[in-house]
Amino acid sequence: MVLIGRSSKIGIIGGTGFYSLFNGAESAKLDNTGAGKAVSIGDIGGRAVAFIPRHGSNHTIPPHKIPYKENIETLHRAGVERVISSTAVGSLRRDYRIGDFVFTDQFINMTSGRESTFFDSEVRHVSTAYPYCTEMRRIAAEAAERLGLSYHSDGTVVIINGPRFSTKAESKFFRSIGADIINMTQYPEVALARERAMCYLNISIITDYDAGLEGEPGEGGEPVSNAELRTRFNENIERLKGLILEIIKAVPDERSCGCKDALVDAE
Ligand SMILES: [Zn+2]
After folding, report:
1. How many angstroms separate the alpha carbon of residue 137 from the centre of ligand 1?
2. How many structural domains are present in the chain?
3. Which of 13, 27, 248, 266 could pair covalently with 85 via S-S, beta carbons 3.0-4.6 A apart?
4. What are the distances in angstroms from CA 228 to CA 93, 134, 167, 209, 225?
5. Residue 95 belongs to what H/E stretch?
């Protein structure tokens, strides 16, 4: 739990297009060799906040190769109690529109072959009935409301392995099993954070309509291209940063949610 530098109770994992949060932030490195990853620590609203760019600082790490365990463990050892993550997502529904924010409340995991638990040498079963922090989702929705942003206070994400995008048949299937949005990186990140009893808030930004909303009436609904996705996400980064600042200002020092007790009875 010792950090060279400062400790931080709030950690941010930036997704596609979101590689830096601070200007001139200090970089800290854990002195515990178990998770010796460098994190940037900067001030936001007078609080020390840790930052990790999920895909690396130059967007070189693909979704299936991201060191999810290392990222979460690094934040945990830095003293982080609350994780705020951003992700680019595709929409599977006409009413979840491009540019909208979604505060995800449920996930369906369709990934495979990823290291997804810290409990490899002991038997522990953590409840993930409510994997995303309810208190943080409420704070986020209130912040989005104050800023006049278009948002959804809940949504089910299906996480696919990638790096390819969905086929039309897969996209249709994901809609049929109840997913609202689709992404490649929320799992196992959210589950690992829960295993470390950290609050996890996801802020998804809708950048596309996945493989297209074929057969549905209305405008849009075209399949995604990667160039398109990047452009749209970049347009939203400044709005995202504003939202994160507004959320951090409203986060109380002490947690009143159940996340800190995630490991109680997890045997
Ligand atoms: Zn919580």
Report:
1. 9
2. 1
3. 13
4. 19, 32, 18, 11, 5
5. none
Whether residue 63 lies inside any domain: the answer is yes
Look at residue 267 and tell me if it is in a domain.
no
Contact between residue 221 and residue 209 where contact means Cβ atoms under 8 Å apart: yes
Chain center to CA of 155? 13
Instruction: Provide the 3-class DSSP secondary structure of residue 156.
Output: strand
Counting residues of the chain whose pLDDT is more than 70, the rounded percentage is: 86
Nearest Cα to 239, choosing from 100, 106, 93?
100
By annotation, the residues acting in catalysis are 208, 210
pLDDT in tens, 235-256: 788 899 899 999 999 999 889 9
Distance 183 CA to ligand 1 centre (A): 22
- Ligand 1 centroid vs 143 CA: distance in angstroms? 17
Q: Domain span at residue 28?
A: 3-261
CA distance 44 to 202: 19
**In whole angstroms, what is the distance from residue 123 CA to residue 254 CA?**
30
* CATH number of domain containing 28: 3.40.50.1580
Of all residues in the chain, what percent are helix, strand and coil, respectively (each to 5)?
A: 30, 25, 50
Q: Mean pLDDT, to the nearest integer, of 48-73?
A: 89
**pLDDT band, residue 34 (cuts 50/70/90):** low
Contact by Cβ (8 Å): 10, 18 = no
Considering the domain boundaries, does residue 207 fall inside one?
A: yes
Encoded tokens for 177: 């099993």
Give the chain's mean pLDDT: 87
A 10 A CB-CB count for 45 gives: 13
Alpha-carbon Rg for the chain in angstroms: 18
CA of 121 relative to ligand 1 center, distance in Å: 26
266 domain residue, yes or no: no
